[in-house]
Structure formats: C-alpha cells, structure tokens
Design brief:
The chain is α/β, with parallel strands linked by helices. It contains twelve helices and nine strands. The strands form three sheets. A four-stranded parallel sheet has the order 5-4-3-6, sandwiched between helices. α4 links the parallel β3 and β4. The radius of gyration is 18 Å and the shape is globular. 52% of the residues are buried. Bound molecules: pyridoxal-5'-phosphate.
C-alpha cells in the first residue's frame, strides 16, 4: 500500500458529534467535574472514571456502532498504546463484534491482561506503535477486518469530541481546556466540539517531552516520525502516522498551544494527583498538573 496516498478525512461537524453522543449514551458516564487543589479556577474532568478507565470508550463505542452489519460480523482490528485497545475490546464485546488488537512491547502488562480478559485476540509485535499499525493494516487486507485506529478516524474523533459537549454542558463558563495530547483524537475532537459551541475557548495540548510526535509534527508543519521511548505517560506514546488523514490538521488548526513536560514534572503531577487531589490515575492523566505545577501554564480564568 502506498504511503501518503490516503485521502484526507473530512472533520466531523458539531451535528456529527451530537449524533455520536446519542449513539454512545448508556455506554459512557457524564464525567464528574470537580474542584481542584490547583486553585479556585481549576476543575478536574474525571473521564478516567469511564468504563475501561479512559475516555477511549467514547470513540471506540461510536466507531463500532457506525459500522455496517457485514463489517461488524467480520470484526475489527486496531493498534494501540493500551487504552484504545481496551476500550475497543470492551465495546466489541458489548456489541458482539470480534476484536483483534496489535500491541507494541511498551504497553504495560496490566493493560494487556485486561484486554485479554475482555475476549480480544492480542498480537504483541515489533518495536513501536508504527510497527503495530503495519500489522493491523495487513490484517485488514488478509482477514477483511475493519481498521478502527486509536485516533485518526472521523468516528473516533467524533466520539472523543463528545467529552467537549459534556464539558460545555456542565461548565459553560470554562475558558481554557488542558488536554493530554498524543495522536490528537481527544484534543482535536474536544477542540472541535467545544469551539463550535464557544469559539473563545482556548484548547492546549500537553505531551511528555520524550517522543511527542504531535507536538514535534506541529512545530515542523508536517507529520514526523519520532523515536518512541518509555515514559511515565505511556498512554501518550506512539506516532501520529506519516500519512495522517485527520488529526494532524485538526490539531494544527484548532489547538492554541502544545506544551511539553519532562518525566520529573509528570512524576510531580502524579504525586499531586495522589496526595492533593486523592486521585489515583495514570501518568498520561497527570500532564495537566505537571504543566501547571512547573509554571509552564499560568492559570487564567476557568480552566478544565
Ligand atoms: C489515548 C489517551 C490519551 C491521548 O489521546 P489522543 O487522542 O491519542 O491524543 C491521553 N490520555 C489517556 C489516558 C489516553 O488513553
């Protein structure tokens, strides 16, 4: 298959995000939005309380629901840093759709075990997220599976964008939204829906400084391949695909900034989550705390 030959996807509209929310109702919670020890203007959006432990269940459930019946019967495949695979396995089981996931060795064992427990076929391969995607692409050709990638797909972006609707419903005064950034499905989807409702909202992506594929690509003006290295924020690892079809453009056009945090700052963020907020979350969820505590983001006005 030729790289860079895939046509760009059209970005979902606000109406499509609303349709996604109607589709996934019942499979997701409206996340609690709670006060933060970071200050009176900051609130935490606890989407980590979703089934399977991350927002990924939004996009995975929406993407499976939008497949034609024949594709559902053949099954779906993805590569993932862990949380998307888990969400897809969960959504696939609920919908009776067979799920195959391709995982790189950087995916933590506890996530692999949880995915296997949900009945998905797990294939562990290669060095990187990009290698895992290559195997997923081969299975599409060999077995006729539908590829539902972790971020670069309109139904995934629309699903993740439902978090923006939930946020704007619950806290219409919000002015700044800080979002952990990897492939940009969440940041792109939330920026799309939140800004459609309130154009003045600022959306800032935050990544670890080790292998921040989207941030480096945005700085370069085109999708780049970056070396993947272990990080406390394992769910933020992986490339964005040199043939990125949607999320690079979305992030380029809609993000107000992309900020990088170090491993030490993420550690401090996790520590603050645990001791100040009394929340036990994964490293990827701590980058907002990391950036604020490091002084890389100055809180000004209502901030999620
Ligand atoms: C997937 C994931 C992210 C990053 O989402 P993208 O859509 O890839 O940018 C952030 N945090 C957690 C916990 C995740 O699972």
């Amino acid at each position: 298959m030729l790289k860079n030959s895939a046509a760009a996807y059209e970005a979902p509209s606000l109406e499509e995000v609303r349709a996604a929310r109607a589709r996934i109702r019942g499979a997701v919670i409206r996340p609690p939005i709670v006060a933060s020890a970071l200050g009176p203007d900051v609130r935490l959006v606890l989407d980590c309380l979703q089934p399977t432990g991350a927002f990924k269940v939004r996009g995975a459930t929406n993407a499976i629901a939008t497949l034609p019946a024949a594709a559902k019967a053949r099954g779906v495949v993805c590569c993932s840093t862990g949380n998307h695979a888990r969400a897809l396995a969960h959504a696939g089981r609920a919908a009776g759709v067979p799920v195959t996931v391709c995982l790189s060795p950087l995916v933590p064992d506890n996530k692999v075990a949880a995915i296997e427990e949900l009945g998905a076929e797990v294939i562990r391969i290669g060095q990187s997220q990009d290698d895992a995607q290559e195997v997923a692409t081969r299975l599409v050709a060999e077995r006729g599976l539908a590829d539902l990638p972790p971020f670069d797909h309109p139904a995934i972006v629309a699903g993740q964008g439902t978090l923006g609707l939930d946020l704007m419903d619950a806290w219409p005064e919000v002015e700044t939204v800080l979002i952990p950034l990897s492939g940009g499905g969440l940041a792109g989807g939330v920026a799309l829906s939140a800004k459609a409702i309130k154009p003045s909202v600022r959306v800032i992506g935050i990544s670890m400084d080790r292998g921040a594929a989207m941030a480096e690509s945005l700085a370069a003006g085109r999708p780049l391949r970056v070396e993947e290295v272990p990080s406390l924020a394992d769910s933020l690892g992986g490339g964005i695909g040199l043939d990125n079809r949607l999320t690079f453009r979305l992030c380029r056009d809609l993000l107000d900034d992309a900020i990088l945090v170090t491993e030490a700052e993420i550690y401090r963020g996790l520590h603050a989550l645990l001791t100040e907020e009394r929340l036990f979350a994964e490293g990827g969820a701590a980058v907002g705390h990391a950036a604020i505590l490091a002084g890389k983001i100055r809180v000004k006005g209502p901030t999620a």
